[in-house]
Amino acid sequence: MGDIYLTTKPTRMADTLDPLSPGINSTRVPVGVIHKLRMRFTRSPPQRPPGEGYVEFGEFRTEAPGIKKVGTFAGVFCPVVLSMFSALIFIRMGYLIGNAGLLVTLAQFGLAYLIVFFTVTSICAISTNGAVEGGGVYFMISRTLGPSSYSDILLTTGAWPPGYLVGGGGLPDGWWFRFLYRSALNGAGLAVSLAGASLFARTSLAIWLTMLVCLGSAFLSFFLTGPSEIERPDTNRLVNETGFNYTGPSWATLRSNLYPQYGRDYTTGDGEPVDFASVFGVLFTGVTGVMAGANMSGELKEPSRSIPSGTLWALLFTALSYCALSLLSAATCSRGLLQNNYVYLLPINVWPPFIALGMLMATFSAGLSNLIGASRVLEALAKDNIYGFLLKPMASNNGNPVMAVLASWLLVQVGIMAGSLNAIAQVNSVLFMTSYFAINLACLGLDLASAPNFRPRFKYFSWVSALLGLCGCAALVFALRPAYAGGAALACSALLLALHLLSPAAADPAWGSLGQALIFHQVRKYLLLLDPRREHVKFWRPQMLLLVASPRHSAPLIDFVNDQKKGGLFVIGHVRIGQLDGSGDPLAAEQKYWLKLIDHLKVKAFVELCLAESVRSGAAQLTRLSGLGAMKPDTVLLGFRDDHPPKDFFRE
After folding, report:
1. What is the pLDDT of residues 565-575, one digit of tens each?
2. Contact present, 621 and 633 (Cβ < 8 Å)
3. What is the CA radius of gyration of the chain?
4. What is the DSSP letter of 362?
5. pTM score
6. DSSP per residue over 74-112, as a string?
7. Contacting residues for 552 by C-beta, under 8 A, at least 6 apart
8. CB under 8 Å to 293, separation ≥6 — which residues?
């Protein structure tokens, strides 16, 4: 029994037990490519002042003086409404109804809103579960699933606002003209974003009031404008007709527009055929702005209250507006007009500049809210040190991430070079559904794991709603656009792999991982089912307790027992001579070095440390108390005592 005495001083346990310490191991240094890249990424960052860097749910960063916070209406309701309306409300309703018909369009809106509603309930559940800091949906998901599980999804979707700035009508046309208009709108959004959240809130409120007037004029025009012939737009070169009928409210017109009649999209170069999937891809961009308010979480006075109420009211307002506009368009406009003039609201309006202004404000406001939201996501990624030095300049200490705003603006400038709104809408929809999938997955995992820290004040959430939202997103994205969905899945997988291998935050114990909570939940359940009274000799397994004094001198013995356990339990026990002094657990700091030893030796074992007045009593305690439930050691092993000098196997 003498060989299990502690042979090193307690003050040197860190140096003695750490198998990866360069001072005691072999001088050989790995020189592989992965090692070089990881060292490049994991170079120790400068020390941040207290309150910066990683923040958990329920904690608050110290706010910089002079930062103004915004309320529910200006900070959540208005941005969500404007983001959801985007270019769809004035520019693409004809595309939807003219091809899919009123019934299919309403059914698609119902399906889209159902998926979004399930996702919104998940957002509300997470946002009311504790204090929400800057980064919005990224903050919610990363604090649930861990840093490298879904930050790649949020980086893919959070910085993708160009789809809202691709549109237009009623102005001089041409590729350069369109690029000029979009760049001007993007530049205006950049100016507002650089000014900060306070100006953004005031701008959103002003745009919302303007949009309300423009939308009201569109509804009134359906009743005030008499029957007329609307000219074909110059951009439509697919048909020879010069004009199409606007009939005013008519039952005959409504009946003719009830069912699908897919045509060709005149905004594409060769007039691509339209189908159910392409229509739904464009329609879904009109319901993807629900995260605009959540992404502003760092600028809100009360994020836990503002995000649920503002988002749900915005969802109801936009749903009623879309349904009313769809019904009135189908009852007043001929099929030819809807298919061949997507901006039909402009010529039938009592004062056409209302619609032109509405188009401008809709695209600008949606792009603005997503531009400022994307910059906050990038800032949160930088503060959490997810991508190392790549995003380090994006962090800000004054509440307004200037570099993150500029990076988001540059990404938009690249994205708006796409020629067709309908084409970019397909990619946009896939990326947003990917992020919705992650949100629902996070909530589903929290609920199934019975996590004690998951107690949302939002009571209309359940694991069923999260599961339905998750399955709906996955089914739709692969059923409608399998190629785009596969590309998004490959991109996320590549980022996920890179983050696990290279990210400085991948192994940070400060991040809570949902996977660990799920494992604990399942292991506990099955341990309770493992009844020791039902053991049988034919299913006996060796369950071994190996008593070790110095891991440096016992490495071959540990490997030997690991090979002999044959799928059974393997516990490495160690006795420390001493007594409790009331200042806490004296073995807590030592535990992590034993766990590092297990990783270094690549053995499947548990570690049990014991503090006792003698080795004999400590060994007896370990023999009696090691294990849990039916998984308890039935074999105790000791190193063979001899007169040979001890050998340090870590140095060889």
Report:
1. 878 899 999 99
2. no
3. 31
4. H
5. 0.75
6. IIIIHHHHHHHHTTIIIIIHHHHHHHHHHHHHHHHHHHH
7. 16, 646, 648, 649, 650
8. 75, 76, 77, 79, 80, 306, 307, 310, 311, 314
